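Hi P.,

Sorry for the delay on this. The queue was packed all week, but I finally got your sequence through. Input first:
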Amino acid sequence: MIQGHFLHNNYVQVLHIINEYTPLLNAFKTSTSFLDEDFVRWKAEESEFLTNLLLESPSDAFAVAYVEELEKLQSAEAKYGSVMSVPFLTYTPASFMQSSGLNAATRNSSRAIEAKLTLAL
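Then the structure:
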């Protein structure tokens, strides 16, 4: 029953629109010398335009893919930079000699940074 009311109300609304706007449309066509065929053609052109909007052009697809790859590169460079900032990687074998001064505080600092990087990756 609800669908019947819905359809009836839509039908009444359409009749109202037709009765109200037909005289306005006829006056517009007379003042501009447009024909019914012009309106049909415009509708077809609009449909074609909207259909073409659904299709992604190859240049747009390439640009999007390029930006996505740049974002991946930026992320990889940021991760690489954070890994390379670990003090352990800047030490040389000479740093681990008894006379090098590498003490417990430095070892603990290196371990803390390694743990932080492990969590980040």
